[in-house]
Structure formats: structure tokens, C-alpha cells
Amino acid sequence: MVIEYAPLEDELGDVLDKAMRHACCTEQALAERSGVSAEKIHDAIDYRYELTPDELKRLAVALGLNEPGLLALAQNRYPLPEISGLPFCLYPLRTPHGIGVANAYIVAECGQSSGILFDAGSDYAQIERVWPKRIRKIEAVFITHVETEHTGGLEELQRILGRAPVFFPEGICISDTSAMAGEVGGGFAMGEGARLRYGAFEVRAIKTPGHAEAHNSYVVSAPALPDATQMLVSGDLIFAGSAGRGYFCAQSFADSLKRLFTELPGKTVIAPGHGPLTTLENERLHNPFSK
Question: Which residues neighbour 194 within 8 Å (Cβ) at sequence distance 6 or greater?
Fold first, then answer.
């Protein structure tokens, strides 16, 4: 399978900033722990990089980050794996978000004109530009979490393509789900371990709070092919070369990330909310937050 290129979501400065926030660590405190000057740390977070490999290693130790992964990111050499082996066709819908991209995904049986959608982009007009011509119907929509870049296009998409059931994490406020549960054809909360079958596919919800209080990741598999590669739609939990921010709770976020690295097979393809596709094995080896 050939997937078009998407830029990494984060640079070195983003990763350092997120790691400091997760650790509740100030620039001055990190300087004292690492022996790297607070000025250099501040400059790095502001995307002005003058850190030596030795300083990067010391920062990685002080923040509990994967040293080789942090160095690879700093050198613009972060490795990305070849994506293949999925037992279905995957259509990434990449739309502009800041200087990067926000991702939605369609999963469909190859050759078929209907599929299931994961997240819905920030705006229908943006999604429409990258929508695959083959797909003319959506059977269901699965929302990882409620943020504009992941749900903003949902209502208009449903109006134009037809209503389909929408599934979202337990715990989302009623005001957040008013569009999903009303005009768009019905909304349903999916809790931990809930499973749904659509044709040859099964979607299993994993509760992964931290970035948001109500945040699901979804494992997509083909039960008839138990040895086939499965896919994790990870929302804003993990990205190639980085991770999301623990806006709701840094500890919950760390626990969700650890669970991901511990429980899923290495060949699992990760379809993140931002940035390119990757695999769990690749991120175990290289992701700065995998340690």
C-alpha cells in the first residue's frame, strides 16, 4: 500500500515543550536537572536549535525521553516505516491544520463504494477536496474526541452524504454531542472494550483519556483474518515521532500512552489524528515518549 506523504506533526521544540508540561517541569528546573542552560532550552522550545548531541542526551535523561528518537528528530532523520499488510483499503483524508495536517480516515473493503469514517475534519469543504471518488456512502462514523479539527465537518458531511450512526467516547458532554445525537442521525457512546461489526471489519473502542477527558482510540481488524495486520486510530494520543498534550490530565495521558505501547502488537498500523501513518513497532523503537 502506498500512502501519500504527510509531514511530522511536531518538531524538537514541540516535543521538549510537551515533555516539560507532562513532567510539570519549568525551563529553570530542567536546566538544573540536565546541566543545559535555561536560555538554550528556551530557544529550542522557540524553534531556535543550538543544542549539541550531548546536551540533547542530557535533556532526554532529565525528561525520561527515548534518547535515539530525540536525536533523530533533532537531526530531521526521524524514520518512518513502510505501511502494508492491512486487510482493507484505507483512505487518509488529510486537511490543513496550522502548519501541519489533521487526519480523518475511511476504511472500506477494496473495490466497494461504502465504508466507515473515523473523525470528520474541521470543515466539510476541506474534507470534500480530498474525498475519494469511489466512496459514495458512509455506514458509520467513529469520533476519537471532540475538537474542531476532528468534528467540525461532521454535520455537513452527514447532510450531504446521508445520515449514519455516530459513535463517540463515553463522558462527552451533551452540548458537545448535540450535532451528533440530533440532526445527523443518532449518536451512541462507546465505552471501553465495546465492539461493533461492519461487514468484514470489527471496531473495538479503547478508552484513552488524557488529551481530553473523553477520548477513544479504535482498533480496526478483520476477524476472519486473525493474523492480518490491525490498525489503531489513535486520535491525539500518539503521533509519528511525538504524542499529544495531556490537556485534561498529564498522568492519565501517560497511562494511556503506556497502555498502548504495552498491549498492542508491534505490527499494528497507527493512524494518528495528525501527521503520517506509522507502526507501533516503529514508535516503540524511536518515539521520544516511548521510554
Answer: 204, 205
> pTM for the full model?
0.93
DSSP 230: P
Contact 88, 200 (CB under 8 A): yes
* Cβ atoms < 10 Å from Cβ of 79: 12
Q: Which residues, other chains included, contact 76 with Cβ-Cβ below 8 Å and sequence gap of 6+?
A: none
Q: What is the pLDDT of residues 140-189, one digit of tens each?
A: 999 999 999 999 999 999 899 988 999 999 988 655 544 454 433 458 99
Q: What are the contacts of 126-133 at 24+ separation with CB within 8 A?
A: 126/95, 126/96, 126/153, 127/93, 127/95, 127/153, 127/157, 129/95, 130/93, 130/94, 130/95, 131/93, 132/91, 132/106
Question: What H or E segment, with its residue span, contains residue 130?
Answer: helix 124-130
Give me the amino acid identity at 241: G
**Residue 226 vs residues 174, 201, 230, 259: alpha-carbon distances, Å:** 37, 11, 9, 21
Over residues 37-71, the pLDDT tens digits come to 999 999 999 999 999 999 999 999 999 999 999 99
Q: Which three cell numbers stand for residue 172?
A: 462527552
